[in-house]
Prior knowledge:
With about 210 residues, the protein is mainly alpha-helical. It has two domains: about 1-95, no CATH class; about 115-210, no CATH class. Helix content is about 70%, strand content about 0%. It has ten helices and two strands. The chain has helices spanning about 1-20, 25-40, 40-60, 70-95, 100-125, 130-135, 160-165, 170-185, 190-195, 205-210, and strands spanning about 150-155, 210. α1 runs antiparallel to α4 and α8 (about 170-185) packs across α9.
Amino acid sequence: MKRDSRVRTGLTILWALSPLLTAGLASPIIFTHVALRLRRWAHWLAAAGYLALESAVFATVEADPGTAGDVIFSIGAVVSVLGGTAHAFAVRGRVFARRDAVAFDQAQGEIRRRRELRARAHEIARRDPQTALEMRIGRPDLPRGFDDGGLVDVNHAPAHVLAQGLGITLEQAERLVEARERCDGFVSAEEAAALTGLPPSLTPRLAEYGVYLP
């Protein structure tokens, strides 16, 4: 396993050195590969840039010393060779990242994205509860076109939705339903937890995933 890892590392280093080993000829190819792997427009632009540099180098290869063409040739060659090599080493880790590491990064990114969606939906509910009701924020059981990041309307959603969305038992969710009917709805996670006797450890979840609309 260690030998395979060393071979893999050696091959990726050779990949990054290819602009240097080919006098810059590999730079456009390398960054086309980078763009295909990472799928970002910046890398497509880099590939196009290196291709343009190589075209300029070939066009000025026979330029007389001291002429503008000679300057273009020199600059193009240096950037394509040394710049391409340095650039390849800079992105090597991302291009050849192991699948589990990529999956972990994607999962983290999705968690952050969902958290931001919840924060935005919470802000809508705070500023304009009526709009939040019309958008059906916190009601995954109803048809809607707005992604609220997984919020649950604690004052209106049925028990099974509360259980699933808040990560609590159905019995705890039914206690929430009974208590909200008695007090005509909760105003906060703290009140909901206090009036239902739920464990204090659940209050942060009630605050993050719950929305309390009138």
